[in-house]
Amino acid sequence: MASEDTGYFVHESSYVDEGAEVGDGSKVWHFSHIQSGARIGKGCVLGQNVNVAGDVVVGDRCKIQNNVSLYDGVVLEDEVFCGPSCVFTNDLMPRAHGPMGWTVGSTVVKKGASIGANATIVCGNTIGEYAMIGSGSVVTHDVASHALMAGVPARRIGWVCECGAKLEGEFTCPACGLRYVEAENGLAARNAE
């Protein structure tokens, strides 16, 4: 349903619960569910079969591909890409029953980061700005800004530019020419020193 009243599009097979916020220009496609309390920014695209829990915050211009569930404790900053079927956990000791109860762990994905298809992000970690997580990787610790991560568990195998190209030589992008320097938590664009 495209609605002039809401300013965003929701496919007729999807649900946006009362109390959820969805920003102008966002699109929620087939069989998705946005739960009460969730906040979705402007210009986002949520693919088929996406579930967003009530304690989730999604920034502006994010792309969340098919079959992704964002559970309580997940925060996506602006322009984050979540590939098809990537997984966010939110409890380090999950049990269907037992004395431990439920402890939600938080996960923050910083601006411009990309998570590949079928990657798993273990809760309690932060993925830095413009980092890129390879398909099928399992992230078990914090990821530096601009880090290129792959494997199980995920390890840094290089660095990437804001545009997504792998950096070469002296942290220079072969695609756009942007140059980087080492920073406290990964890399920073040279002009941002």
Detailed description of the structure:
There is one protein chain. This protein has strands spanning about 10, 15, 20, 25-30, 35, 40, 45, 50, 55-60, 65, 70, 75, 80, 85-90, 105-110, 115, 120, 125, 130-135, 140, 145-150, 155-160, 180-185, 185-190. With about 190 residues, it is an all-beta fold. A nine-stranded mixed beta sheet has the order 1-4-7-10-13-16-19-21-22, with no helix packed on it. A six-stranded parallel beta sheet has the order 3-6-9-12-15-18, with no helix packed on it. Strand 21 (about 145-150) and strand 22 form a beta hairpin.
Low-confidence stretches: none
Helical coverage, percent range: under 10%
**Integer-rounded radius of gyration:** 17 Å
Beta-strand residue percentage: 25-35%
Q: What is the H-and-E element order? A: EEEEEEEEEEEEEEEEEEEEEEEE
Write down the overall geometry: globular
- How does the helix and strand content classify structurally? mainly beta
Distance between the termini: 46 Å
Count of alpha/pi helices = 0
Quote the average pLDDT: 94
The strand order across the widest sheet is 1-4-7-10-13-16-19-21-22
Q: Please give the largest β-sheet.
A: 9 strands, mixed
The tally of beta strands, per DSSP, is 24
Organism: Raoultibacter timonensis
Pfam families: Hexapep, Hexapep_2
Protein name: N-acetyltransferase
InterPro entries: Hexapep, Trans_hexapeptide_repeat, Trimer_LpxA-like_sf
